[in-house]
Write a structure and sequence with these properties.
By secondary structure, this protein is α+β, with helices and mostly antiparallel strands. The protein folds into two domains: about 90 residues, Winged helix-like DNA-binding domain superfamily/Winged helix DNA-binding domain (Arc Repressor Mutant, subunit A, Orthogonal Bundle); about 190 residues, GAF domain (Beta-Lactamase, 2-Layer Sandwich), CATH 3.30.450.40. The protein is built from eleven helices and eight strands. Strands 5-4-3-8-7-6 form a six-stranded antiparallel beta sheet. A hairpin with a 5-residue loop joins strand 1 and strand 2.
């Protein structure tokens, strides 16, 4: 009995030691070890493109298999993790419930939804709202159009900022040294053969975005698609807090339609910025 208790305590100590060594946990002293492990497990699953087996999670987190199994079982029960028939795991549907609850209380997403209803611009086209997360953009809201695109946009979708119109709109408002840092950290990944993967070329594009007030993704995210973007500012007005983007089928869009889409996306970005308290230059630059 004594040995069993000692073994249990030893395992607990080893788990705590290992959890402290998990890179990038960033948790303060006094954090609950079990919660730290659960959060890191969710982060690993979120970063994975495919469901992960128990062995892969064990390797990634460097924790005992029994610990990972217990964490997964608990998170599956809560709906935060889903277990597939082959025994692999990925994020569960309850994650989206929490995400929607957060986004519904965020001014920019609520105002974007309200704006889309009131302006009714580009009703045939899909318009997205994204925010910058490191070197990526994450779609936080979407107004689906009536025209089929052949590409599904969804809330939570993450793409390299250097490839997307809304991402370039956001990057154009950052100091150049910050863009360099992000590029060096991410390596400027490509989504198509037209994606810009060299820093000097990206910098030239960003200069052009600042000059004209909108950005262009010419088949850099998806073949056959051209996307246009504009930055959104709030009352702080230092850097853009979000980007609005519209996606068009290149083969079905002439110069007149493209120019109309540019004016519409700039109008939406300008009005959304005003609603969020931006004034003066930061509103004017989005409609120039």
């Amino acid at each position: 009995m004594i040995m069993s208790k000692a073994g249990k305590n030893g395992s607990s100590k080893r788990d705590a030691a290992v959890s402290a060594d998990i890179p990038g946990n960033g948790f303060p002293k006094g954090s609950v070890p079990a919660v730290v492990k659960a959060v890191r497990l969710l982060e690993v699953l979120a970063a994975a493109k495919e469901p992960l087996a128990l062995a892969a999670l064990t390797d990634a987190l460097e924790l005992p298999k029994s610990t990972i199994h217990a964490l997964c079982a608990t998170l599956v029960h809560s709906g935060l993790v889903r277990r597939f028939e082959n025994g692999s795991y990925h994020l569960g549907s309850h994650i989206m419930d929490l995400s929607h609850a957060f986004l519904s209380r965020t001014d920019v997403t609520a105002e974007f939804t309200s704006l889309g209803d009131s302006l009714n611009l580009l009703p045939e086209e899909t318009i997205i709202l994204s925010v910058l997360d490191g070197a990526d953009v994450v779609y936080v809201s979407c107004r689906n159009g009536t025209r089929p695109l052949g590409l599904n946009f969804r809330i939570g979708m993450r793409l390299p900022a250097n490839c997307t119109a809304s991402g370039k709109a956001l990057l154009s408002t950052l100091p150049e040294e910050r863009v360099v840092e992000l590029a060096q950290a991410s390596g400027l990944p490509a989504l198509t053969r037209k994606s810009v993967t060299e820093l000097p070329a990206l910098m030239k594009q960003l200069v052009l975005v600042r000059r004209r007030g909108y950005s262009v993704d010419d088949e850099e995210t998806h073949d056959g698609m051209v996307c246009l973007g504009a930055p959104v500012f709030d009352s702080n007005s230092t850097h853009a807090i979000a980007g609005i983007g519209v996606s068009l089928l290149k083969s079905a869009t002439d110069t007149q339609q493209k120019n109309a889409a540019i004016r519409a996306i700039q109008q939406m970005a300008s009005e959304l910025s005003r609603r969020l308290g931006a004034q003066g230059l930061y509103v004017e630059r989005s409609v120039s």
